[in-house]
Specification:
This protein has 621 residues and is mainly alpha-helical. It folds into 3 domains: 2-87, no CATH class; 89-451, Na+/H+ antiporter like fold (Up-down Bundle), CATH 1.20.1530; 465-620, Mannitol-specific EII, Chain A (3-Layer(aba) Sandwich), CATH 3.40.930. The chain has helices at 2-28, 32-43, 45-56, 68-76, 78-87, 89-103, 109-141, 146-157, 162-170, 176-207, 214-242, 250-256, 260-267, 275-294, 299-313, 317-320, 328-341, 350-377, 382-387, 398-409, 415-449, 451-455, 459-462, 477-481, 493-506, 514-526, 583-596, 601-610, 614-620, and strands at residues 485-488, 530-532, 535-536, 539-542, 549-559, 569-578. Strands 1, 2, 3, 4, 5 and 6 form a 6-stranded mixed β-sheet that branches. The radius of gyration is 27 Å and the shape is elongated.
């Protein structure tokens, strides 16, 4: 019971310390993640031991009434406390596996095709330059062992996009810069995971005394990759079998029971992320990771392969469940708290600080110089060349977890030294990266939409007031499409989508149509949004809007939409839904499909458009 008691106690301490640290960090604006890590440091066994040694310097403190429990803890329970804290390491591996699995979302064949050779060139150049500089510095200057220098170099490649994309969403930045950065970061992390897995595998082989040669390493890597991929396939097949497209809820079934052929297809796939699916993913990916680890396989590859297969051969809806706002922050908080609790402050020395400084300088130089040169080689716009390299500096997440992994499996052969070098540097990159990213993105937004719009905080909400819908407002057809009903002429589905997206831009709802067009076209490739009866519902979710927005297009000449009934489409409702309120998509669909039950609705809408009486017509429905 003592061990269980300590597990419960320390779980509570970690959560509260990280939460308080993050809260205080937000208040003083140094970055929530940094505060959570510091919170973990303060309650970690290494920092507590420093406090104990400090108290021992003063004679008689152990006799002070208020301090007796403190000394009793260190003399009788500290070892158990430290052991329990190490028991939490399992969560690090699980979390890393989920992160690697989620990368699969960006590996859909259509997305990979859209990355283009230019983004690939930028990514490869900056990754190679960063790796080469860090490896050379630690091997030739700091005299690290060859394999340790290779591991540090591989970790240095990783880029943490979370902080930057949070800032982008906050500033409502969409378009080319965001799309390019996302593609580069995903490729960057894939390269890093492969390098890291190979080098860590070699380090483990050396530690266990196995003979290492080019042939043995090649065979080892091929075997590990083969079986890692095989386990990834197993995870995919299990998830595909268990998690199928979700049927409508009972109340939705009641809503569509009178018109199954028309409405059931619209509501068949529920857009709201599911906690149930999240739990299933966590459980199955955890089992796969455990099997891979049991056979000493690179489980990161296993998770990425599973995510890749889900993305290409099942459904993107699974990844939405990994972004549930009320759940994932808890995992993030616990993750960073455990990282902080493992920071061995006692091991810091002048030599260690030199290594930390070296890592900071070498990685910063590699990321900035490599990305800048990649932009020049691919002839990027001067504004992107000026901004993109500065957004590549933040590093936490993947790099932090991998550092913990190195510390765990190489604890007796250099793992501690690598840990003490990288973890402090990650804190600096998170702090400095947050400041530099925000400054860079504000400059980008000034260039794109003008300083006056950026500085007016209410400007975005004031644009197109008639179409702005508060989150809790009851949706009606009038509030959804109001002044956004147009007669359009297009020769193809793609052309119609481009025209309707332009209407959002003209109305001031979005600033860059490319990201919306790409998302909608990608969704069409996964399955036509034509539902039959000459109607189509192209849609996507985006951070560019705060509430659901709809534009209606009446086609002068119907176009082929690959609908299930093979009828051409002459009525289009394009729906863009805010990422944080995905349930609004379903609400908008219900409102529109209710109106479509009336067989003459389409003709009446056309007549109202010709007579400039759309607003009156919609209010009368």
């Amino acid at each position: 019971m003592d061990h269980i008691k300590f597990q419960i106690l320390e779980a509570g301490i970690l959560i509260l310390a990280a939460y308080l640290g993050g809260y205080l960090a937000r208040k003083i604006k140094i970055g929530e993640v940094v505060g959570q890590i510091i919170g973990g440091v303060v309650v970690g066994p290494h920092f507590l031991h420093i406090i104990y040694r400090f108290l021992l310097k003063f004679d008689g403190l152990d006799e002070v009434f208020l301090l007796r429990p403190v000394f009793h803890f260190f003399e009788n329970s500290y070892d158990e406390y430290a052991k329990v804290m190490e028991d939490f390491h399992f969560f690090i591996f699980l979390f890393l596996g989920i992160i690697a699995f989620s990368i699969g979302e960006e590996l859909h064949r259509d997305r990979v095709r859209k990355v283009g050779i230019k983004a690939t060139i930028i990514c490869v150049i900056q990754a190679f330059v960063t790796f080469a500089l860090i490896f050379s510095g630690f091997y030739f200057v700091f005299d690290f062992e060859l394999i340790h220098a290779l591991i540090i170099g591989s970790i240095g490649i990783a880029t943490a996009p979370a902080l930057t994309f949070v800032l982008m969403n906050k500033l409502k930045i969409e378009g080319k810069l965001k799309n390019l950065l996302a593609n580069i970061v995903v490729l960057d992390d894939i390269i890093e995971v492969i390098f890291f897995s190979i080098f860590l595998g070699i380090a483990v082989a050396l530690q266990t005394g196995h003979e290492v040669s080019f042939t043995s390493i090649s065979i080892l890597v091929i075997e590990e990759l083969f079986f890692s991929v095989l386990i990834g396939f197993v995870i995919f097949f299990i998830l595909k079998k268990i998690v199928k497209k979700k049927l409508p809820e009972p109340e939705e079934q009641e809503f569509i029971k009178d018109d199954r052929t028309f409405l059931s297809r619209v509501l068949m796939e529920h857009p709201t992320p599911s906690v149930e699916i999240l739990l299933i993913i966590l459980g199955i990916v955890a089992l796969g990771i455990a099997v891979a680890m049991h056979f000493n396989l690179p489980f990161l590859i296993t998770a990425i392969v599973a995510g890749f297969l889900i993305s290409n051969f099942h459904s993107h809806a699974l990844f939405d469940s990994l972004k549930i706002e009320n759940v994932m922050p808890m995992f993030n908080l616990l993750f960073f708290a455990i990282i902080g609790s493992n920071v061995n402050v006692e091991s810091f020395s002048g030599e260690t600080l030199i290594f930390v400084g070296g890592y900071l300088v070498l990685r910063t130089t590699g990321k900035l110089a490599g990305s800048w040169y990649g932009c020049k080689v691919t002839d990027q716009d001067s504004k992107i060349t000026a901004c993109l390299p500065k957004l590549m500096l933040p590093q936490a997440g993947m790099a932090a977890v991998e550092t913990i992994l190195v510390f765990t499996v190489l604890k007796n052969s250099g793992g501690q030294r690598i840990f003490d070098t990288i973890i402090p540097a990650l804190v600096v990159f998170e702090l400095g990266g947050a400041w530099l990213s925000e400054k860079t993105l504000i400059k980008w937004k000034n260039w794109i939409i003008g300083e006056s719009k950026l500085m007016n905080k209410n400007n975005i909400d004031e644009i197109d007031d008639n179409s702005f819908i508060e989150t809790d407002e009851i949706l009606t057809l009038s509030t959804l499409i109001y002044n956004r009903v147009f007669e359009i002429s297009a020769e193809s589905r793609e052309a119609a989508i481009n025209i309707l997206t332009s209407k959002f831009v003209e109305g001031g709802i979005i600033y860059d149509k490319d990201i919306i067009v790409n998302s909608i076209l990608e969704r069409e490739k996964l399955g036509s949004t034509g539902i039959g009866g000459g109607v189509a519902f192209p849609h996507c979710r985006t951070s560019a809007v705060e509430s659901v927005k709809v534009v209606c297009g009446l086609m002068e000449n119907p176009v082929d939409w690959k609908s299930p009934d093979e009828k051409e489409v002459d009525l289009i409702f394009m729906i863009i839904t805010p990422e944080k309120y995905p349930e609004q998509h379903l609400k908008a669909l219900k409102v529109i499909t209710t109106a479509l039950r009336d067989e003459i609705f389409k003709e009446e809408l056309k007549d109202a458009l010709k007579e400039n009486s759309v607003e009156k017509f919609l209010k009368e429905i």
